[in-house]
Write a structure and sequence with these properties.
Elements: H1 3-8, H2 10-13, H3 17-21, H4 28-49, H5 55-79
Helix pairs in contact: 4-5
Length: about 80
């Protein structure tokens, strides 16, 4: 698994943030890096498309952000 490619486009490699957390090919630091990148991407999408985004899509991205944050917090707590 090419970690640099995964970090650039986490959603292309994982169906959910929880899948990142359980990926055996990544260590904890890599998992955190992937999730932080995914969080930035989702936040950017929300802010850039907020005015033109359908309500359902906005809600999906918001829910995804909550899942990313929760998974990140869990990994960071476990790491240290």
């Amino acid at each position: 698994m090419d970690i640099d490619k995964v970090v650039q486009s986490p959603a292309d490699y994982f169906a959910s943030p929880a899948q990142v957390a359980t990926e055996p090919a990544l260590n904890t630091a890599q998992k955190i890096k992937v999730l932080e990148s995914w969080q930035v991407d989702a936040n950017r999408l929300l802010t850039s498309d907020a005015e033109n985004m359908p309500g359902d899509e906005h809600e999906q991205i918001t829910a995804q952000l909550q899942e990313i944050s929760s998974t990140l917090n869990d990994l960071k707590s476990a790491a240290g």
